[in-house]
Amino acid sequence: MSGRFIFLKKKLDPKAAKLIKRLWKQVIVRNNSKISQFIEKPKDRKLIFVAAEHGNIEFLTILIREYPDLLFEVDENNYTIFHYAVKYRQNDIFKLIHQIGSFKDLIATLKHEKKGNNILHLAGILAPPDRLSIVSGAALQLQRELLWFEEVREIIHPLDAQEKNKKGKTPEVLFSEQHKDLKKEGEKWMKDTANSCMIVATLIATVAFAAAFTIPGGTKQDTGSPNFLLKDSFTIFAIADGASLALSSCSVLTFLSILTSRYAEKDFIWRLPTMLLIGLLTLFLSVVAMMAVFCTTFFIVFDDGKRWCAHLVTGMASGPAILYIILQFRLICDIVSSTYRRWALFKPRKHNFSFKEEKATEPKKEKLLSVIKKFKW
């Protein structure tokens, strides 16, 4: 197994992890200069920054457990592994920042020596395409970018959030400029999705409304009441038809609200995804109710004989509902995960690593001083 493959692979093989632990224990007994030479890579790239860029949390955890100073290593641009985590949207690496105590404040103040970008500016820069594509749809991609920006904002001082880079741009201005095209794509994607779903919901509402006046089995001429009024299947038919009409109408109104939204950046965090989720769920339930209306009609008609025909139709009618779930499952999961479980995206892991200071090469006091000296103000 090549060295490059080991530290770029996010999920390490147990044997590979065991090998890295043994090799690293032999490295840390050397002095700091030898350790620095070991982690250097060609073209002035350090091993830990390449690993952070690719999100290899297992590899970094093994190294950090034995040599905590790696958390505070900076590259030629004065960036730490946390800056790389933000730049390349590696949330597993970024979670470590919540476990380093007061050093978090020091890291948050570091910025690019030439461009003047701090860690929030990096959150304002558009993520690489491979990190954007982990969620479906431009609107949800913009939502993920906004969540990253808000999360990074929480770890820095309010004054740093308004700091300008060398081009005179604050993080918010940089975010708006970098994500201008993605915002347009997100608005178009949301409108196209809402428009298509609204057409389907409108058709279902029309069918449900018409079914209410086309009673299966007809009515009695003298009283006008349905002939099969006392049958349980007729009761299910009436309830399902009313539910289908109500749910499809709610779906239409929800998608109409999406089409008439103002589409501000903040709306993509919670409001628009929530309305889209409500619209999709009510549309699904209206499809199920419509299929129930269709099936109960056969049970009413074939109640006295050939019930196998009604059962066969019921089995076939379940197909559209199952197909809907299959086609929309990924989208619904992304909406729920990004909107209602976003805390899990940046939630610190417990016992992710523990410092083994007794194995460090310097006394604790001298180590802390040496770490502080590494910061360039």
Give me a quick take on this structure.
With 377 residues, the protein is an all-alpha fold.
Strand content: under 5%
Q: Please tell me the overall pLDDT.
A: 78
Overall, the morphology is elongated
Q: Domain count, please report it.
A: 2
CATH class of the largest domain: Mainly Alpha
Q: Summarize the main sheet.
A: 2 strands, antiparallel
Tally the helices: what do you get? Answer: 19
Can you count the beta strands? 2
Query: Which segments are poorly predicted (pLDDT under 50) over 5 or more consecutive residues?
Result: 1-7, 26-30, 355-369
**Considering DSSP H and I runs of 4 or more, what fraction of the residues is helical?**
55-70%
Cα Rg: 29 Å
CATH hierarchy: architecture of the largest domain: Alpha Horseshoe
Q: Indicate the CATH topology of the largest domain.
A: Serine Threonine Protein Phosphatase 5, Tetratricopeptide repeat
Account of the protein in words:
With 377 residues, the protein is mainly α. Helix content is 64%, strand content 1%. A hairpin with a 3-residue loop joins strand 1 (40-41) and strand 2 (45-46). The chain has 2 domains: 3-178 and 352-373, Ankyrin repeat-containing domain (Serine Threonine Protein Phosphatase 5, Tetratricopeptide repeat, Alpha Horseshoe), CATH 1.25.40.20; 182-346, Up-down Bundle (Butyryl-CoA Dehydrogenase, subunit A, domain 3). Mean pLDDT is 78; it is low at 1-7, 26-30 and 355-369. It has helices at 3-8, 14-27, 32-39, 47-53, 57-66, 81-87, 91-94, 103-109, 119-124, 129-132, 138-155, 158-161, 171-178, 180-211, 232-259, 271-301, 307-340, 343-346, 364-373; strands spanning 40-41, 45-46. The chain has 19 helices and 2 strands. Helix 11 packs across helix 14 and helix 16 runs antiparallel to helix 17 (307-340). It has a two-stranded antiparallel ribbon.
